[in-house]
Every structure is written in C-alpha cells, then in structure tokens.
C-alpha cells in the first residue's frame, strides 16, 4: 500500500433552499429535519467521522446558521440538564473539537460545483471528501462500515478520485449524474465518462453518482473555469468529467442502503426503516405499522 495524504476534510453543501419540503423548511434548514431523533446533517457528519475525517466544512447560505448551532456547545441547555441530573450522552454526537466545524457562504445558488468551489481556500492543497446530506447512506450490518469509510479504504488502495455509485431503474437516470463504466474490479469500477442529468436514451449506464466523493484538490482549479451545465447550473459532474484521463477516476459500489432524503417519499422510508431497526422502539413501531396497515 502506498502512503497517501489522508482524507482529513469533508465539504457538506448545505446552502439549498429545501423547497421540496415547504412549508416545513420555511424557517428550518432541511438538513435539520430529523430522521427519528437525529437531524439529517448529523448522519452525514457521523459518517464522515467514522471514516476518520476531522474537519467539517459547511457551505451554507442565508437562514442556515442553525446547522452550526447544532454542533456548538449549548450552555443553558447543558447546565440545566446537568442540574436536573439528565443523561447528557444524547448530546455527544453534536460535540465538535474546537475549530473543526468551519463554514463558508455560497452567496448565490449557482449550482453544486459552485458550492464546492466556495470551499477552495479551506480545502487547500489536499484531497478531500464531499458528502451530500440529502443522500442518506446506511452501511449493511456486517459490511465495512458506512459509505465514506468504504471509500476511504478504497482510496488507500487506488488513490486519485473516487465517487460512490449505485444502480437505479433506467428511467430514473435523468435526475442524477451518470457514469460511463469501464473495467470492474471487486467493488471498484473505472469511470470512463460522466454526464449530469442525461436524457434517458443518452445515458451511458444506470449507475448514478450517489452523493459521496473523494476528490483531488485540482478539481477546484477545474471548477474555476467551469461553465454552466444541466439546469443552467455550474455542475460538479462536468468539472469531474474534465479530470478523467488526467488523473485516476474510479467508482465505489457501496455495500449498504441508500435513502433519497431529498424527496418526501425517501424521507418517510428512511424514518420508517431506521425506527424499525431501533432497539428502543423497533418492536413498538412494527406493531404500530401493522395496526395502521390493517385499517
Ligand atoms: C446532485 C449531483 C448529481 C448526483 C445527485 C445525488 O444532483 O449533481 O450528480 O447524482 O446530487 O443526489 P442534485 O440532486 O443536486 O440535483
């Protein structure tokens, strides 16, 4: 195994308006909507931490400051809980090492590629991860951990650029970035091409980019000159496509489940699936679901 620069930083684009969840997201960032009792952003940050990543860079926008509050010390809450002898461990996942939560602003919503580029000064000259919190990735029991952990493992073997992929029904490809797949080796597939939101009949495969990336810092330079693409937005996929051939590019097929929490249906599915698996409530939720279905 070659020694590579470790992946220490992760970028979370969280500036989106969350219009699909209105009116819930009028005053609350969609990333703070809870799946059972943890906000969406918490699952993504936990996944990054599990992969050994230390610095979390949030690309935020107006009205999104509550995301940062979530990872701060809540002095009044904590001292009141302590006085009342409450279990404080529920707050453990929200604790961050001072300096490890960093925010930058994306002032104008120009697209995912632009959001990532906004973090260039903090990413600096090292490889970094990107996690889209809308995509909730849950590692299979017995698998090698969460999605980012599986990717970091693959990265230590092959280096270069990595994206996570999964297969969707062919008629759904137009909502995603799609890869042109090359040779396969275990859970790795060579990426020969990438296209953002292609028409169904022009899609090179049904393997879609599922919201997890490990990229070399050169992508920031590529984004610098990236014109508008699908939907009139500056697309990360287009910048990555331009790096193919210059640097190794591979896809990791994630061993686990993915919930599309950017859609209401996916959000409800994730809530039910996770609630059913919880030791403290799974049995009751199952009984409740059966009762409701019998009506
Ligand atoms: C973004 C990416 C796309 C990716 C998708 C995963 O699209 O541009 O390549 O497949 O996330 O959710 P968006 O959902 O922001 O339109």
Question: Mind explaining what this structure looks like?
Answer:
It is built from ten helices and 13 strands. The protein has 295 residues and is an alpha/beta fold. It folds into two domains: 254 residues, Spore Coat Polysaccharide Biosynthesis Protein SpsA, Chain A (Alpha-Beta Complex); 33 residues, no CATH class. The strands form three sheets. Strands 5-4-1-6-11-8-12-10-9 form a nine-stranded mixed sheet. It is globular and about 60 Å long. It starts with 8 loop residues before the first strand and ends with a helix. The chain binds 1-O-phosphono-alpha-D-glucopyranose (G1P). The site of 1-O-phosphono-alpha-D-glucopyranose has 15 residues, from β11 and α8.
Question: Could you name the CATH topology of the largest domain?
Answer: Spore Coat Polysaccharide Biosynthesis Protein SpsA, Chain A
Helix content: 25-40%
Q: Which spans have pLDDT < 50 for at least 5 consecutive residues?
A: none
Biggest β-sheet: strands ordered side by side in the sheet: 5-4-1-6-11-8-12-10-9
**Structural class by helix and strand composition:** alpha/beta
Strand count, sense and closure of the main sheet? 9 strands, mixed
Highlighted features:
295 residues; globular; alpha/beta; 9-stranded mixed beta sheet; two-stranded antiparallel ribbon; 10 helices; Spore Coat Polysaccharide Biosynthesis Protein SpsA, Chain A; 2 domains; single chain; binds 1-O-phosphono-alpha-D-glucopyranose
């Amino acid at each position: 195994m070659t020694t590579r620069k470790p992946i220490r930083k992760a970028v979370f684009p969280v500036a989106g308006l969350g219009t699909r969840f209105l009116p819930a997201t009028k005053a609350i960032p969609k990333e703070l909507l809870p799946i059972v009792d943890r906000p969406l952003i918490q699952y993504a940050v936990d996944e990054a931490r599990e992969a050994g990543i230390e610095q979390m860079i949030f690309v935020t926008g107006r009205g999104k400051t509550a995301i940062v509050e979530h990872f701060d010390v809540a002095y009044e809450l904590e001292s009141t809980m302590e006085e009342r002898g409450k279990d404080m461990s529920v707050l453990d996942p929200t604790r961050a090492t001072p300096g490890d939560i960093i925010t930058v602003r994306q002032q104008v919503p120009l697209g995912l590629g632009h959001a990532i580029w906004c973090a260039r000064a903090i990413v600096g000259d090292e490889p970094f991860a990107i996690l889209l919190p809308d995509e909730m990735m849950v590692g299979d029991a017995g698998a090698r951990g969460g999605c980012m952990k599986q990717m970091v493992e693959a990265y230590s073997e092959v280096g270069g650029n990595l994206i996570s992929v999964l297969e969707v029904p062919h008629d759904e490809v137009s909502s995603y970035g799609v890869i042109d797949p090359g040779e396969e080796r275990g859970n790795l597939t060579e990426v020969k091409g990438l296209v953002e939101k292609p028409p169904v009949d022009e899609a090179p495969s049904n393997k879609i980019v599922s919201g997890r990336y490990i990229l070399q810092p050169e992508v920031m330079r590529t984004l610098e000159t990236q014109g508008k693409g699908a939907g009139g937005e500056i697309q990360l996929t287009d910048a990555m496509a331009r790096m193919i051939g210059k640097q190794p590019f591979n896809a990791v097929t994630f061993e686990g489940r993915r919930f599309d929490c950017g859609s209401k249906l996916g959000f409800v599915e994730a809530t039910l699936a996770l609630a059913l698996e919880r030791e403290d409530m799974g049995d009751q939720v199952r009984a409740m679901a059966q009762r409701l279905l019998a009506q």
